[in-house]
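Researcher: Good morning. I'm working through a list of sequences from a screen, and I'd like to move beyond sequence-only analysis. For each chain I'm collecting a predicted structure so we can compare shapes side by side. This is the next one on the list. No need for commentary yet; just the structure.
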Amino acid sequence: MKNIRNFCIIAHIDHGKSTLADRLLEHTKTITEREMMNQVLDDMDLEREKGITIKSHAIQINYVHKGTTYTYNLIDTPGHVDFSYEVSRALAACEGALLLVDASQGIQAQTISNLYLALENNLEIIPVINKIDMDGAKIPEVTDQIIELIGCKQEDILLASGRSGIGIEEILQAIAERIPAPVGDPEAPLQALIFDSVFNSFRGIIVYYRIMNGVLKKNDKIRFVASGRDYNADEVGVLKLAMTPKAEVRAGDVGYIITGIKVAKEVKVGDTITLANNPGEMINGFEEVKPMVFAGIYPVNTDEFEELRDCMEKLQLNDASLTFELETSQALGFGFRCGFLGLLHMEIIQERLEREFNQTVITTVPNVSFIAYTTRGEKIIVNNPSEMPDPVKIEHIEEPYIRAQIITSPDYIGNIITLCLSKRGILMNQSYLTPTRVELIFEMPMTEIVFDFYDKLKSQTRGYASFDYSQIGFRDADIVKMDILLNGEKVDALSALIHRGKASDFGRRLCEKLKELLTKQQFQIAIQAAIGAKVVARENISAMRKDVTAKCYGGDISRKRKLLEKQKEGKKRMRQIGNVEIPQEAFLAVLKLD
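Model: Good morning. Structure tokens for this chain:
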């Protein structure tokens, strides 16, 4: 065990984690030149296309240092704020972390929040300045920032470049010398912490774990503590580039196990694996995930509901931060109410359902959870607009607030403050980390950042601001439910919970957008946005007209009027029985209102 090192790479998005991991694998000859490609650990097409890491990936490396062979278990982690739950799970399986900082960008918001996550888990931090061969590299400034943040010595900071392979040997040596070996007793009862799992259609569910104590052998009878079920360990092994079977996996190692489980519900991330005949204690692993954004996901054809449920369960295995429950909608039939960690997370889930499981789905307007207190003193959690109690019965409503941390250069302070104040934000603190970097702390309603806040922040600051947030609780708010009516009928999938001050403006823009998207019918369609019984905005789509008076030439006006009256009657009747088809684009339009 003294020659094992478990570590992960943490950083802000786009600071070069995956590229550095590529170099470490190349330098230690873990993969051959033929297998080598960029972002070798990102095995999803989606990750390569977007250039981001979505999943944490574990891989084992062998490295010889001063005549001793060390076994490194490296976990590459995502950098985007929406996938911070992935990072927290990777940290639980490690003793140390490489903290990467981009030499041209310096310390950014996710760097700080990932660092705090690592310190909470008592990890040994090795600071690395990456991309030192870039033209805009500001090595002395970034060194000062790191020393101020961590309080380390200047000689502790390693300089490297993932692109050209500078400093890779120094990093590998530092891992052996500075990261502690895992502590654990191979003789104790087995305790293994599950930190990830994946569904394989041939082998069932493959579970990834880190062994804290004990030894796991092939054909052992094992037990999952949380679900209390017993299984047989058909295959155990370690994670090289492919899975490598072994006779046993010992304390301190990261490995996988195949037991032939087919039902997704039986495996839970954060659960403990132990032996059935000599059970160990449950390890206190992860906190429960707190979804931030909620949206409905519905199959396009209602017959495919069961199939969608299976796909969601398989996807949840691989992405434990996705939560879902059943929901029905008058417009869309049966579907799921899903909780996501952010809008990017929601977009990725939708993409993965389409690519990996061939499921085309309709996603409703994303929103957050509110708490409504009724006049009887009841507390109701409102996840979507249809659960909102009658306004007459509501005493008051509370909405979730976040503490947002934005790090930027001083040139953009004005733009950011204007943007945040327009989103009902309150500026709590402004401090200069260095002469060229400012940290702004805002308290803002979660509702306001769900839609387009991140995109706007990027465009206002030309991509130079980094953003991170955490929840701070609930506060009173004037929230109303806004319904969209088509021909006097509510479309529940387009309803939204919104702040009263923004409701009429939002309603007007939505009605205008729907007018563009809905096709004309034989009768006039009225599109209305209403709060309770009060209509705040309206648009009309005029009817397609057939010129019924074309055959009347000359003669008395009453003949024309008679034909027009007859047409009017027909249109009135058609309007009562006609229904308006809402295209898929209309549901998406709400997300892109501007």
